[in-house]
Amino acid sequence: xxxxxxxxxxxxxxxxxxxxxxxxxxxxxxxxxxxxxxxxxxxxxxxxxxxxxxxxxxxxxxxxxxxxxxxxxxxxxxxxxxxxxxxxxxxxxxxxxxxxxxxxxxxxxxxxxxxxxxxxxxxxxxxxxxxxxxxxxxxxxxxxxxxxxxxxxxxxxxxxxxxxxxxxxxxxxxxxxxxxxxxxxxxxxxxxxxxxxxxxxxxxxxxxxxxxxxxxxxxxxxxxxxxxxxxxxxxxxxxxxxxxxxxxxxxxxxxxxxxxxxxxxxxxxxxxxxxxxxxxxxxxxxxxxxxxxxxxxxxxxxxx
Amino acid sequence: xxxxxxxxxxxxxxxxxxxxxxxxxxxxxxxxxxxxxxxxxxxxxxxxxxxxxxxxxxxxxxxxxxxxxxxxxxxxxxxxxxxxxxxxxxxxxxxxxxxxxxxxxxxxxxxxxxxxxxxxxxxxxxxxxxxxxxxxxxxxxxxxxxxxxxxxxxxxxxxxxxxxxxxxxxxxxxxxxxxxxxxxxxxxxxxxxxxxxxxxxxxxxxxxxxxxxxxxxxxxxxxxxxxxxxxxxxxxxxxxxxxxxxxxxxxxxxxxxxxxxxxxxxxxxxxxxxxxxxxxxxxxxxxxxxxxxxxxxxxxxxxx
Lengths: 304, 304
Fold this sequence. Notes:
homodimer; alpha/beta; UDP-N-acetylmuramoyl-L-alanine:D-glutamate ligase; four-stranded mixed sheet; 10 helices; 14 strands
C-alpha cells in the first residue's frame, strides 16, 4: 500500500563535531519519504520556495517519490540551522526560518485522498489535522511531533493526537507531553489521549514500542562513526511505516519487525550528513543490518 | 563452581522520591553476594565494625553465603548516605564514612584460595589487587569500579584492570576511564587495557556486552515503580557471575544469557529499598522475568 506523508522540506545547515553542511537537503517530510521509499510508493505533501534547488527534486524523483503534492511558491524555502556537541542526542537549534511555511495550507492532491497509510511528520499540529480532514478512508494514521509544539500548541497537538493510531515521540518529549517522569506511566497517559501504539525514540539507546499492553525494546546499533543525527527520527518513522504499508500487517509481531526496520534506517541516516547515506544505499545492506540487529539483541533460552 | 567476592558491607541511608531508609543493609559486596547466591556458593571477603547488626549477618547466612572472610573489628561499619531525584540513573553522594574500611587489608581465608571465579566489587583498586594476589588458580576474574577511583586512583585502577578478564562499568565511567566520548571507541580503549570482556551498564537503558569483536545489547525492563536503584549494578554483576559460575560456560551465547540473568536480578533489586526484594524472591519469579526479557527484545525474521 502507498503512504501519504505531510512534513517539511527544508534546507538544513548543520554542524557536528565531525563536520558541517550548508543548506543540505533536509526536513521531516524529506527524511521520512526517502527512507520509506525503500518499501513502498510515497506521496509527499509539502511546500518549497522559488529558491529550492532543482537537483534536490531530482533526487526525490529518483527515489520514485510522487511530488505532485509539493507546492512551489514565491519566496524562500524553510531553513533550519542547528548544531550538535559530543552528546549527539540533543540538537541545539540556532535558527529557524519558516519562510514559505508561514502561510502554508496543505492540499492533498485528489489522486492521493484514497491513500490508506498516512504519516504526519513533525510540523504544526493544525496542519497535521488539515491533512487528516482531507483523506477519505485512512487505515493507519501515525504522527510525529516535537517539544516546540508540545509547549507552544499543546491543545491543538492533543486534538491531533486524539485522531491518530500511532504516535512517535522522543523520550523527553513524551515526559513533557504527559507531565510524568516515569516513561511507562507517561506512555499510559498518552495512550489515554488516543493512540493505541506509541513509539518512544531514545536516540543512541534505541526505541520502545508500547502497543496496547505490550512493550518491545529495540536497541540502537552502537556506532563508532556518527556524522549527523539530523533526520534520524524521520528515517526511523519512514522505515517503520514503510514496512507496515508494504506488508499491510498491523499485528504485534509485524509492529516489532517494523521497529527494527525503522531502527536500521535510522542507523544508516546518521552515517552521513543530510540524506546522503541514501544516495547509494542498497537493499542488501538493509537486510544485512536487520540481521545485525538480531545478533545484537537475541539470546537463548535458559535452564535455571 | 563457587565465587569469591570482595567488596563493601555497609549501612546505607538512602532517600529517593519514593521513600527513604536509614542504615539499611548495603554495600557492593552485599548486593553482589545476595544476588549471586541464587546460582552458586558465595564466599564473601569484607570488614564490618562492632556496631554491625547481627540480623544482617543472619540474613546473609540464610542465603548460604560463607561469612568466614568477613572480619569484625572494633569501630564503626562503613556508611554511605545518598539521594536520588526523579532521574534515578544518578546517585548523589551526601556522605561517605569509610570507618573500618580505612585500614582494611583483605584476607582471603585459606579454604577459599582455590576458588576459580572471583569478583572484585567496587572498592579501592589497591585492595582489589591484594585479593588477586591471594587466589591460586583463578579461571575468571571480573571487577567493578566507580568514578571515585577513576579520578582518584587512576594508575592503581588501570593496574587492577590489566589483571582481570571482565570489567563491569557505568557508561559515564567508561567514557571517563577511556577519555573518549564514543562508547564503542571507549570500549576498544578499555579492551586494550586488558579485559577481553566489558559490560557497560546503562541504568534504565540496559547494558552492553562487548566481548572480543562482538556486541550484545540487553534492554532494561521498563518499570513503573522503581523504589531504590542502590545496588542495581552489583545485583546485575551477581546474577551475571552467578550464572557463569553455575554453568562454567564462558562462550558468547552463555555470556549473553548471563547478561540477561544479571539484568533480571537488577530489575528485582530496584523494586525495594536495600536488599529487601531478595528476602522473599523465588526462583520461579526469576524464570518468569527471564521470559519477560525475551518478549521484550526478540523479533522475527523478515522478508525484504
